[in-house]
């Protein structure tokens, strides 16, 4: 199985197409407070132009359940990435709505308490895997900050995960993605700040280099 690579924070068809042409497996769209925030109408116009083979993942922070369902339908999303509290039965209800075809990722911010969340999420049969990220006092994603990979490699990334996927995120870039992969041995990697020219706008060279370096290392 080759490494899964997600390029997040897409705000235009041009940037989404760049990621697809550079070999991304998945594109992320942020439906949350962020300089990369997009709405359902914008994303539906983008996803309609993308190949079916590319995963389209919605990123949600404290979004009401019914709104997530509506956005998934409107935009033809193939996955959700939940950065915040969702009722415990949220993943089961999403599964009931969309079936096994919807990839359901829960986010764990590596740091104190992360293992407890990770274990709880991994025990949920309707959660497909974890995206392990960094956070700050004010931001739950898109921070551009790496977590302690050595510590995570010995703890969270060692955890028996019952076939569920572990995606590494947080402060990755073309320059450090190979080292992150060598240290963490993740199933996938995800990036936003490290491939941008400005928040919400991709740097084509960085997108290409990130995916090429991740593929070489993975
Ligand atoms: O990207 C954002 O602005 C964002 C805001 C709020 C929640 C999530 C967000 N991004 C989600 C992602 O999947 C990012 O790729 C991930 O957090 C890594 O970001 P970075 O450290 O900037 O590569």
From TrEMBL:
One of its GO terms (biological process) is L-tryptophan biosynthetic process. It is an enzyme of class 5 (isomerase). Pathway: Amino-acid biosynthesis; L-tryptophan biosynthesis; L-tryptophan from chorismate: step 3/5. It catalyses: N-(5-phospho-beta-D-ribosyl)anthranilate = 1-(2-carboxyphenylamino)-1-deoxy-D-ribulose 5-phosphate. Transmembrane segments: none annotated. Keywords: Amino-acid biosynthesis, Aromatic amino acid biosynthesis, Isomerase, Tryptophan biosynthesis. Pfam families: PRAI. GO terms for molecular function: phosphoribosylanthranilate isomerase activity. Its EC number is 5.3.1.24. Residues 5-212 form the N-(5'phosphoribosyl) anthranilate isomerase (PRAI) domain. Belongs to the TrpF family. This is N-(5'-phosphoribosyl)anthranilate isomerase. It comes from Occallatibacter riparius. The gene is trpF.
